[in-house]
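Archive transcription. Copying these from loose printouts into the bound notebook so they stop getting lost. Printout 1 of 2:
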Amino acid sequence: MDVELARQHWHDGSRRVEAARADGRRYRELVSGVDLVVARLRQRVGQTFTLAELAAAYDGADEWARELLDDADPEAPVPTEPWTIADAAFHAYARGAVDYRP
């Protein structure tokens, strides 16, 4: 995926998470999911990476992020916004890229 297009998706996901701040339960659920996906990104991408490498890892992220969130707590309801969680996690993780520019 094109880096700039991916960054737009990631930014939109982060914005959607922040927009949920007024709904405390939903916001906590989203942020908890973001933390899980960021931890998995550390394993998948590593700590030294470029935005292009992160954008490449973004392909298929909806699927593995949904599986990760489902497996994290089998008793919890299925997350309703796994794409938002994944996008926000990529947005947060992108700040660590060696070529990151706001």
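Printout 2 of 2:
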Amino acid sequence: MRLALCQMNATVGDIAANLARIRSGREAAREQGAELVLFPELAVTGYPPEDLLLREHFLADAAAALRELAAETHGIVAIIGFPERAEDVYNAAAVLAGGAVHAIYRKVHLPNYGVFDEQRYFQAGSRGAVLDLSRHRVGLTVCEDMWEPGPPATDEALAGATLIVNISASPYHAGKGAERERMFAQRARDNFAYAAFCGLVGGQDELVFDGHSFVVDHTGRTIARAGQFREELLLCDVDLEWAAAARLREATHRTAERSASSSRGQMRVDVLPPLEPPAPSATRAPAANSPAAGPAGAGAAAAGHLVAAKSPPLQPPIAPVEAEVYAALTLGLHDYVEKNGFQRVVLGLSGGIDSALVACLAADALGSERVSVTIMPSRYSAASTQEDARALAAELGVGIHELPIEQVVSSYAAVLRDQFAGRASDLTEENLQARIRGNLLMALSNKFGWLVLTTGNKSEMSVGYTTLYGDLAGGFAVIKDVPKTLVYRLCAWRNTPAGANGDRVRAPIPASIIERAPSAELRPDQRDQDSLPPYELLDQILYGYIELDQGRDQLIGQGLPAADVERTIRMVDLAEYKRRQAPPGIKVTERAFGRDRRMPITNRYRG
């Protein structure tokens, strides 16, 4: 069977644009001789639609769009994700063929952890489903249905499916693609069936979907893989007779099948009406996983938004992790800007490591012509950091706006002089500088319609080392889920030849930015380490406390200094009110603030 996996970038709520992408992918797959084409979970509406799913007219528009697609679908079988409004709402996969909706499968396992909230919106399906295409039986699943071991996939395999397809919207975190592929390989081995994962790609608010679609055979070997962080139509020829023959030789599976057959009435599988797929063209080119496929790009067919990629077999996932995370951040930023209609972004460029990374990401994601930076020195700004900021901006070719703040700081001090009489300068005066800078950035945003990018990292967000209405002010927090130690690694990677692939500026970040001790430069000779543990230590404590939910005793038991552990836990807990007011930002770790980690602001528990 020739299988096509359409890894597409859907936009939540833009049903018309999503249909255009589905059409182009369907036609490209048909022209390449595919018998079956898969589209991601909720491809019609985009994922996650959240409370749009509570609107009857939204569900009605999605249903009308599906009927429109079905009427146009001839010469190929398409499986497409959509929200089905029946007696309740279901996260469903529609089988389109012969100009009609042939059948509908309803997702059985609804995730309700981490970033997922599907039990708020959907009713669960009750059973698996298999579809007969010619002499082949195909099992249908949606995302979490394959994450859970056992049914519905096992029931579908016992009902005779030698190919189990999974349409998915699986959010990214660092290393997720490899984890996902290993898990599917195990499911394929367990079920003696091929498994095909078709993933959504693109940015949606705080989430990034990495695509990384693939097909594994019944031995768990990956035989075709799409790229990460880009749209692609992956073609793959699957030898399902090979899986059937392997089952015949495997006594344990035959015993299980025999047992299932004797109790078929109790099996939780719907056998959908059979379909006869179109006969493949005798002259069709070999698919990506065929030895005769030829060089990369051979025979690629233009498909509107998509290209049918004749990729080399087993296109490797992005490595190392710095490259993968950088690609995720770039895509997330690009899609947030594009999908929300911004023409330009602006950020404060201090000459520090965090703003340097955000500037590079913005230029790489959008092009330097769509990026502005402001350089806003005060009396505490070192000449070297300002020189580094200007040098980086010049290398990137972004717009530069010089806005010195000393006169504004003096004006604030004059207004507040009587109120502050008799009190020494303290954090108040430091925060005033940050808030003045935030006001200037927001003024540019209001006047020109630019999106303000904030530059705080996860380590600072965790402990509240940020100024509310100051450096926290903005529209999108690009690196809010990137720990400080990873910020350094990403900057170092961006300066390597690998980081300058394509037409990117080579090694744009001055070495002194990477080597200099981090400082907010809000008072004389200030260093971050004056207020925080060293970042190498801080990030270890934060990983245990935030990512792993470890308590004080567990952290100290690992040899981490007790005083630093206790201080860090206190700062994290007290900063919850700040994080609630932070802009959205891109999730790249397993436990991002907001969707993943939800803690009360009013909270006296310490442990």
